Amino acid sequence: MATHPASLPGKALLAQCDQTARRGSGPGGQHRNKVETGVVLVHRPTGVRGQASERRSRKENAAAALFRLRLQLALDVRTPTTPTAPSPGPTPLWRSRCRGGRISVSTTHEDFPALLAEALDVVFGQECELPPAAEALDVSPTQLVRLLADEPRALLAVNAVRTARGQHALRG
Fold first, then answer.
1. What confidence tier does 57 reach under pLDDT thresholds 50, 70, 90?
2. Band of pLDDT at residue 77, cut at 50, 70 and 90
3. In this structure, are strands 98-99 and 49-52 parallel, antiparallel, or unpaired?
4. Beta partners for 39?
5. What span, in angstroms and rounded, lies between the C-alpha atoms of 39 and 66?
6. Strand extents, DSSP E, 4-125
7. Neighbour-count burial for 103-123, b at 16+ CB within 10 Å, e otherwise
8. Would the pTM of this model clear 0.85, i.e. be above it?
9. Which residue segments constitute the domains of the chain, with CATH numbers given?
């Protein structure tokens, strides 16, 4: 399986991005209106964007924009898999976060977007059938749904496909 862009190290992902600075909008006084601390990242291969401008520090905004870019890449970019292809199994990152069929990661942790991308790739590769996807990832279907529900847009995307296929929607 190809490496998903959401799981690339920060420097490698930034090398694939155009970065621009901008002034923040809204309240904040002179500092916010005079200094370009906002950061916009655009992933050149996909056109996916991540941006942040709520902090007064450009460095903090760059870190937030990178996390948001990774999360958006996890939601928008699929690494091709098929239900009939032999599964290579979970990645080392996934295995390091999975114990006894349970996946453990905070939604604010830097690993979350990569884990979400891996889960979505497998779920969509299994045509949104949860039992085979969960088995391929060595977790329970309930744990897989919980991970998807941690990012409501991910659960919404899976449910849209499931509903179109005549399957019941998953509840998080």
1. confident
2. very high
3. unpaired
4. 21, 52
5. 9
6. 17-22, 38-43, 49-52, 98-99, 102-103
7. bebeeeeeebbbbbbbbbbbb
8. yes
9. 5-76 (3.30.160.20), 92-164 (no CATH)
